[in-house]
């Protein structure tokens, strides 16, 4: 069977078996080589990356309560930090794994059915409350009501 690969069958099975046993490479700085060659320049680079990542994360935290994509900015700041710091790379990998698990769980038919039922019940309750308000007071804004 032709799978579209240019490699032979023996070659592909050998690569697949060895790729599972290989440990992931240790985290390496993404700084250019001329910066990594000088210790003080590399330290300055890391401080700069930290400050930029911190500013993006701070903006993301502010956007959680203000208009804007707060979580996207927080994850972008983590991605900036992950270019230089192994701990941030691990946190980002853990976060990606958890988000993927949550997305898979949300696509589960039982969970989707439950969410649709809860949303429908909430909409029915909200509609009943709005209907009651309109029946009782008509189309009058709450701050324009006279004492009755």
Plain-language structure description:
The chain is mainly α and 148 residues long. 7% of the residues are buried. The protein contains six helices and no strands.
Quick structural summary:
The protein has helices at residues 9-21, 33-36, 39-65, 70-82, 86-106, 109-137. It is mainly alpha-helical.
Which helices and strands appear, and what pairs or packs with what?
Blueprint: H1 9-21, H2 33-36, H3 39-65, H4 70-82, H5 86-106, H6 109-137
Helix pairs in contact: 3-4, 4-5
Features:
mainly alpha; about 150 residues; single chain
Parts with pLDDT < 50 across at least 5 consecutive residues? 1-6, 11-19
| Average predicted confidence as pLDDT | 80
Structural class estimated from helices and strands: mainly alpha
Strand content: under 5%
Number of strands: 0
Through-space gap between termini: 82 Å
Helix content: over 70%
Instruction: Sum up the overall morphology in one term.
Output: elongated
Put simply, the count of helices is: 6
Which H/E pattern describes the elements? HHHHHH
Radius of gyration: 27 Å
Largest sheet: none
């Amino acid at each position: 069977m032709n799978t579209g690969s240019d490699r032979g069958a023996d070659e592909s099975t050998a690569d697949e078996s060895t790729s599972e046993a290989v440990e992931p490479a240790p985290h390496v700085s993404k700084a250019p080589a001329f910066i990594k060659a000088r210790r003080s320049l590399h330290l300055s680079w890391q401080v700069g990356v930290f400050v930029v990542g911190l500013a993006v994360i701070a903006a993301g935290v502010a956007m959680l309560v203000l208009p804007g994509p707060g979580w996207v900015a927080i994850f972008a700041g983590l991605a900036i930090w992950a270019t230089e710091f192994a701990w941030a790379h691990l946190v980002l990998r853990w976060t990606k794994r958890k988000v993927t698990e949550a997305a898979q769980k949300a696509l589960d038919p039982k969970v989707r059915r439950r969410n649709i039922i809860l949303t429908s019940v909430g909409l029915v309750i909200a509609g009943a409350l709005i209907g009651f308000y309109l029946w009782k007071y008509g189309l009058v804004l709450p701050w324009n009501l006279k004492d009755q």
